[in-house]
Each structure stands twice: as structure tokens, then as C-alpha cells.
Amino acid sequence: MRQEEMHFQKRLFDLAQKAYMENRYRFTHFLNEMEQDIVLQSEQEFPVAVSLFGGNSICERKVAMFGEETKFGYAPQWPVALLRFTAVSKKFAEDLTHRDVLGALMNLGMEREMIGDIFLQEKEGYIFCVDTMADYITEQLGKIRHTIVHIEQVPLSVAGQLELSKGEPRQLLVASLRLDAVVAAVYHVSRQESQKWIREKRVFIGGRLSENNSGQLLKQCMVSVRGKGRFYFDGVVAETKKQKLKISIIQY
User: Fold this and answer.
1) What's residue 123's pLDDT?
2) Beta carbons of 231 and 186 less than 8 angstroms apart
3) What angle do CA 92, 97, 103 make, to 5 degrees?
4) Average pLDDT of the chain?
5) Closest Cα partner for 12 from 61, 68, 78, 64?
């Protein structure tokens, strides 16, 4: 484990210990998948239970909570807020990207850990953030690129209606269901390059870090590659006469 990962793990144990001693929930900021994996690897060593939540079941970035209702005697309140933004004039609105929205938020001086997932739906979008930043974003975020936007906080229950942006269905030929072979095919790189990504701890299956080049994708699952995006592995469609496998994916 690298030094920065060890420091992060120590922070987790400090939060867990405080939750245990004070009988009070403790929370992290939004964690990326690498940080979430460290949480899950360490959960058996924490003195209290830990759980993860990002807003809904398909969020990548999540907050970790230390503590549980059965032990503490009261329900937790996750420090997660949901904001909706809409173009003031849809006629002149641009087609905004995830990067556009994130860039506008970072230009407000925010740290990445304060922001969760961002969902885009035509001329509007949704931003998960830590609840203490909701008012600040609402007051300060008036423009994304050249598009003037109106932003408001909405109930977290709305999160259940959000979906991933429409992915691109694709069918690919692979030599096997090895992780390195499938990742290489999806992103049009060599097996050596996909193996390098795996060694660099950039590949996650179902939110868990995968460091096994030869691990098999045997069931439907979401695969994320940091810096490249993610794809849903939908299974094998057919096998060719030359024993190649035709697989179905949805790329996001």
C-alpha cells in the first residue's frame, strides 16, 4: 500500500474510533472507487459498521458512514444533497458535458471530494454534493460555459429517478473473457496497455478494485477504468468457428 493510501486508511480508522467512542455517526467526503475499495478491505477491522452511499445505486462516488442504527439507537442522516440545474433559456442552451459542469464547480474553488456524481438529461442536470456546500453552489453557480442556469436543491428522493446517460451498445470479438482481453477490446488498446492499467490500480469491477489480469468476466457487471469511463458487460452472445467470443457491452 502506498504512503498516501496508508494516510487515508489511518483517517478512516480515526473516524471509526470517534464514532465508536462518541456513539455518533461519522462521515467522509465523497470517495472515488480506489478509496471505497480501501474502506471495504478494512471494514472487518473497524470497531463499528461502515456503509457507502452516493445518492442512488448507480453512483460511482460515495460517502462512507461509520455507525449503524441498531447500535446507536437513532437513524443516520446522510450529508448528501441533490441539486438540479436547468438552462434559463433552453433555446440558447448548449449541450453541456460532465466535464463542463465539473469545471464550473471547480472554478468556484471547490475540492473534488465535495462533489459526487453528475447526471445530465438534455438541457438540465443533477449534482450530488456534500450538504454543507448546497447553499453555496446554489448561490454562486449561475453559468456553465456560456449557458446561464437556474439551480435549486431538490429532495434526495428524486435521486431514485436518475439514470445513466444513454450508453452505446456494442458487440466485440475477444479471445477470452479475461479482464485484460476485454478491457483492451473495449478501449482499442493492446493487451500490454490494458495490463498496465490494471497494475496501476485503475480498473474496478462492480466498484471493487481488480488487480488480476487473468480474472474472468463471468457475469453481468459494471467495469470502470479510471480516466477512460465505464462499460456494462452484458455477457457472451455467440462463439465463432475460430473459437472467438462475441460479447455484448454498453459503453458509457
Assistant:
1) 73
2) yes
3) 100
4) 95
5) 64
Amino acid code (one letter) for 167: G
Contact 128, 55 (CB under 8 A): yes
% the chain with pLDDT above 70: 100
Rounded Cα–Cα distance for residues 195 and 39 (Å): 24
Nearest alpha carbon to residue 63 among 7, 11, 115, 14: 115
Quote the CA–CA distance of 209 and 41 in Å, as a whole number.
10
Beta bridge partners of 209: 204
DSSP designation for 166: P
Per-residue model confidence (pLDDT) at position 18: 98
pLDDT band, residue 92 (cuts 50/70/90): confident
Element (H, E) at 192: helix 191-199
CA 37 to the chain's CA centroid: 12
pLDDT at position 2, please?
83
Q: Grid coordinates in use for 222?
A: 459494471
Model confidence band, residue 93 (pLDDT cutoffs 50, 70, 90): confident
